[in-house]
Amino acid sequence: MSEKMVKKKEKQNSLSRKTKTVRVPTAQTVDVDPWGKALVQDYSRLIKNFGMQKFDVDAMPNPSLQMKRGIIFGGQDLNVIAEAIRKKKRFYCLTGIMPSAEKIHLGTAAVVDNVRYFQEQGAETFVLIADVESQATRGVPIEEGKRRALEFHIPAYIALGLDPKKTKFYFQSENKVVSNLASVCSQKITENEFRAIYGSVHPSKVMAAFTQLGDILQPQLGEPMPGVIPVGIDQAPHIRMSRDVARRLRSEYGFFLPSASYNKYTSALDGSFKMSKNESVGKLEIPEKDRTAMEKNLKKALTGGRVTADEQKKKGGNPEKCVAFEYCKNHFIKDDKPLAEMYQDCLSGKNLCGECKQKYLITYANKFYDDFDKKFVKARKTIGKIKFLK
Ligand code: TRP
């Protein structure tokens, strides 16, 4: 073959010459990766790229405290859910628990609070233990996942506000309806589509993602109804794929496209964006058994303070840049009055950061954890009564 012909052939074979450059999505190029550590820096870009809507607190009936305080930044078709609430129509709310560690994030607690809100607004509520996902993506044996869920996660979710009498619980590994539906869903997505959404077609991710699709759509078998999946933003790819698949299965099953609410990440105490599941620095979890260590950790939280005490007294601090304030607002202080005081006394320079942390962050974190511990002990006693869906 002449050199010219080789060149010509190369040109024909190349995807990138005539058409636009084709980039294979990878975990580095997708916006969020449910199993990775991708950091989201720009929520407005996400809203655009994922076809989300900005969360509109005024459109939700009886919005929760966290909704009012802006922890949810986006949603998908939440107007459908708002209407179901107003007209008292059937709808469901579903969330999943990864039993991969015997602790949960503060960010997860915020998601549970959303589930509690939808449950109180009348949602049929499903909570599943993602033991298949934990086995596939983190190597946690099914039996171990089950043990952790029974001893810790389920009572923890109840302690955080779910009503066990009104919640349907199940284990992914025990639910045939879910695994059968997962296999139906797997027919409706191509390899390239999967890669474009997740940045990878690793077998364990494929396994976990389709099981999760089975979870999300399963309440609609029989009688389709709207449903809302409250998630942290790392779960957005699953919502996206579940909506694509629900659309493709619509003529056969009559599915509604699942709605979703999206929570912001909780910053690490040092102000870095995501509270990582893997690093121990700046991490705050539930429970916090060693309170002395917790307090030490909290004292290191990044603040919006000035360089010198004098300057701060004169000019005041910046609560908007303060992680201590963010934690109090999003997690620890439920009452508006002390929160407003914390804010004002920072702005006016009345409180320096050290005093403020002691007076608000540490005091209210301890209250939060005391309350959790008390409710957790009570919740553990109710576990035996739960009947799991099969
Ligand atoms: N993947 C979720 C997590 O990492 C757990 C999960 C499994 C889930 N199935 C779900 C969440 C269905 C919401 C809906 O935490």
CATH fold-level topology of the largest domain:
Rossmann fold
Task: Give the proportion of residues in helices.
Answer: 40-55%
Computed over alpha carbons, the radius of gyration is: 23 Å
Q: Record the strand order, biggest sheet.
A: 1-2-8-7-3-5-6
Q: Bound small molecules, which ones? A: tryptophan
Please state the oligomeric state of the protein chains shown.
single chain
Superfamily (CATH H level) name of the largest domain: HUPs
Uncertain spans: 9-22
Structural class: alpha/beta
Please give the domain count.
Answer: 2
Please report the distance between the alpha carbons of the first and last residues: 64 Å
Q: Describe the main β-sheet briefly.
A: 7 strands, mixed
Described by the principal axes of the CA atoms, the overall outline is globular
Tally of helical segments: 17
Number of strands: 9
Outline the structure in words.
- It contains 17 helices and 9 strands.
- It is globular and about 70 Å long.
- It is of the alpha/beta class.
- Helix 13 runs antiparallel to helix 17 (353-380).
- The protein has helices at residues 3-13, 43-49, 65-68, 78-86, 106-120, 131-138, 142-159, 176-185, 191-198, 203-217, 236-248, 250-253, 291-299, 309-315, 323-332, 336-347, 353-380; strands at residues 53-54, 72-76, 92-97, 104-105, 124-129, 167-171, 227-232, 259-263, 285-286.
- 41% of the residues are buried.
- It has 2 domains: 23-269, 3-Layer(aba) Sandwich (Rossmann fold), CATH 3.40.50; 288-379, Orthogonal Bundle (Tyrosyl-Transfer RNA Synthetase).
- The site of tryptophan has 14 residues, from strand 3, helix 10 and strand 7.
